[in-house]
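Alanine racemase
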Amino acid sequence: MAFLKLYREKLKHNFDFLHELFTKNNLDWGAVTKLFCGNELYLKEVIDLGFREIHDSRISNLQKVKAIDPTVKTCYIKPPAKRSIKDVVSFADMSMNTEYYTLKLLSEEAGRQNKIHKAIIMVETGDLREGVMGDHLIDFYAKVFELPNIEIVGIGTNLNCLHGVMPSQDKLIQLSLYKQIIELKFNRKIPLVSGGTSVTIPLIMNKQIPAGVNHFRIGETLYFGANLFDDTTIQGMHDDCLELFTEIIEITEKPKVPMGEMAANPQGVTTEIDESLYGQTSFRAILDIGVLDIDPKYLILDDYDFKVVGSSSDMIVIDLGDNTANRKVGDLINFKLKYMGALGILNSNYIEKTVE
């Protein structure tokens, strides 16, 4: 049976590395836990690192965070849907917003719950996902500052997640200037300038964060040690806090070329025949996991002596060549994962999750 393993000490090492980085630069940060899809075992591991602020895009996950430790500050990191307003106010201490209509609903619900709900207003800085356009920002803040039961605590932006627009010193200066303009215009303090996610970490390391930007939401680099500017691992961090273990459920020497009339498989893929392989054989192994759980392109296959031949809903087939490693049925093959692959595994109810 396939299973996912979280290495506690490697995660702690990455946390310590980042905590030192943020502390020496006088920056606040919180952990983004949406990768874990509400898995309580893994959420507890993150909270136990010492985080006092957890960010997530699923309100049910924040509900679980509050059940584990009610004192942890929770933040809902996408504009809330109308049908989620009650739960957002119940389980998120803070949310990121771009619509006056939504903030008005949050204000009304916070009043019903006798709460003050905190909000960060997201600004569009080029990636064209969520964010208020800059030339509308003053009018927007003028309206939301008047809402009862809403405390506007910050301004923020998100980059790289949709079109791949990278953060830069200029874009973060722009964000910091917006904050200063709003404070001067309304004589109100904006405590948080939330400069982005893991993709901004190289800027922090290179001392390129402008004065005023003081808050970040970090997930991928915490769990994978990722430098998202150049797709490498940051020196001194672990890229294997999570590993997927799969079991070989069949090994057989078979022809390299399928036989019979060809059509598209259930995924819509038509196999192209390499006629030079006719008559050749190799050992093929079947792993007990499939595209229902992970797309094989998200498995990191560096330095392995086999290649992925293909996959179906519940099985991945690999070509072992001559099987010089003498693998056999029942053996485990472990993989490091890309972020989106880990996300699929963590969203699967069929894969056991463990901690070591």
